[in-house]
Amino acid sequence: MEPSAREPLVRKTSFSYRTFPESTGKRLDKEYLRSLHNKRLYLAVFAAVLGNFNFGFALVYPSPVIPALEAHPSPALRLDQHTASWFGSVFTLGAAAGGLSAMLLNDRLGRKLSIMFSALPSAVGYALMAGAQGIGMLLLGRVLTGYAGGVTSASIPVYISEISHPGVRGMLGACPQIMAVLGSLILYALGKQGQDSPPNCAALAGLVLDWRWLAVAGEVPVLAMIVLLCFMPNSPRFLLSQGKDDEALGSLCWLRGRDTDYTREYEQIKESVRKQSRRVSCAEIKDPFIYKPILIAVGMRFLQQLSGVTCVLVYLQSIFKKTSVILKPEYDAALVGLVRLFSVVIAAVSMDKAGRKILLFVSAGIMLVSNLTMGLYIHFVPASQNGTIANKTLVSSANLPAEPTNYITLIPLLATMFFIMGYAMGWGPITWLLMSEILPLKARGVASGLCVVVSWLTAFTLTQFFLRVVEAFGLEVPFLFFAVICAGNILFTGCCVPETKGRSLEQIEAFFRTGRRSFMR
């Protein structure tokens, strides 16, 4: 009898150095996860991520529009370097304001209603841009669509993580990024020279729509999102935090299936919510359980933007125009969008198998090499070979020839494709997923909004000064800076980011509550 009495102690000790204890890992066993019906869960996620589709569409709207408006016949709508910089960057300022308001909306309205609320500023913003008679209307439209994007950036990942179970949370957590990429790709495919642009701008021609109709097209996913979300449940965790136990049980039943053992999962969620029934106070911020996951989430969002992805996406066609790659800029942009979509799908499929950290390492490594290659290419390859007439400016490219003179101009296209591929494989989707996974429930609404504010303020600063840095120092300087940041991303991942693959949100919170450094090994 003595060996059997000691056996539990031996098992407990043998697993004490794992990131998460095995005893908690069996709370939601594999048999229960296999028994779940995911069709309704997938439908709810699809309804929510239409907001991300709209976000991706709106984010890169300037990419085909800036070249068209630089050559616009009307002075009221023609962009110069200053206004083009604001048109590209003011979206991120609106997104920061949206993230700030989401800190309140997420905890007051709930995750689902916050997403639905974002439809209003988005629809108004697109209407302003579609009917713009001056630059002021264009900028206001960009601010409003950015505000909507900031709200959805803070609300949708939290909503998805709270309605998902560990078996599919990694895959579903990548869906916001997939839909954002798809939205950007559709924008690149639809973008076209404006019908009121002069005929000599044929080099800027895209595929289908001019810039006004692009704004009208942006209304479609907004309307589809709000209609579908009317029929979707709210997050069970949010409902429990509001004391709506019966509604929370009904929501979980709808998501998991009536013939499953969903009540067991419900009791675990209820117990976790009970321990965090109060909102986070200023005194509790000193608790490592609160501040460590917040610092990790904020740090990841900060480093993600410093890697330069927003600048590259917003000014993509202009960058290709200046480096004179072998295809037309709009086709290069669409090709990069396809690569980005393919890569984020790979991340979604492999995230729950390979784990989060390994993908973050691979992602940062690819981005580092790509940015370094781009910077060195622009610096060392003479303009006569790379086709760059003056790489110290990106605006007014409508008036510059862009005929490639050498196949060496494939290098910037390939470097950009690999950069976007690396970003989409890890630092794109996983930063959003980890934000929603590691933040404690009592601070999740406020902290997710804080992450979005930091993220988009950083993006605004970069996109606002990107053109000025290029004008003053050359196009290679930003890319070399982004390469240094990507090296920092690798160090941050190794030192600070925990592995959350296959763990419930309650287990992740328990991990941070223990404060045991051995769990990080």
TrEMBL record:
PROSITE patterns: MFS, SUGAR_TRANSPORT_1
One CC-aspect GO term: lysosomal membrane
InterPro entries (UniProt xref): MFS_dom (IPR020846), MFS_sugar_transport-like (IPR005828), MFS_trans_sf (IPR036259), MFS_Trehalose_Transporter (IPR050549), Sugar/inositol_transpt (IPR003663), Sugar_transporter_CS (IPR005829)
GO biological process terms on file: regulation of glycolytic process
Residues of the Major facilitator superfamily (MFS) profile domain: 44-501
Location(s), subcellular: Lysosome membrane
GO molecular function, one term: transmembrane transporter activity
Ranges annotated as spanning the membrane: 41-63, 83-106, 113-133, 139-160, 172-191, 211-232, 358-378, 407-434, 446-467, 479-497
Top-level taxon of the source organism: Eukaryota
Record membrane topology: Multi-pass membrane protein
Keyword Glycoprotein: yes
Alphabetized UniProt keyword annotations: Glycoprotein, Lysosome, Membrane, Sugar transport, Transmembrane, Transmembrane helix, Transport
Summary of the function given for this chain in its UniProt record: Probable sugar transporter that acts as a regulator of glycolysis in macrophages. Does not transport glucose.
Matches recorded under PANTHER family: PTHR48021, SOLUTE CARRIER FAMILY 2, FACILITATED GLUCOSE TRANSPORTER MEMBER 6
Annotated family: Belongs to the major facilitator superfamily. Sugar transporter (TC 2.A.1.1) family.
Protein name according to UniProt: Solute carrier family 2, facilitated glucose transporter member 6
Gene expressing this chain: Slc2a6
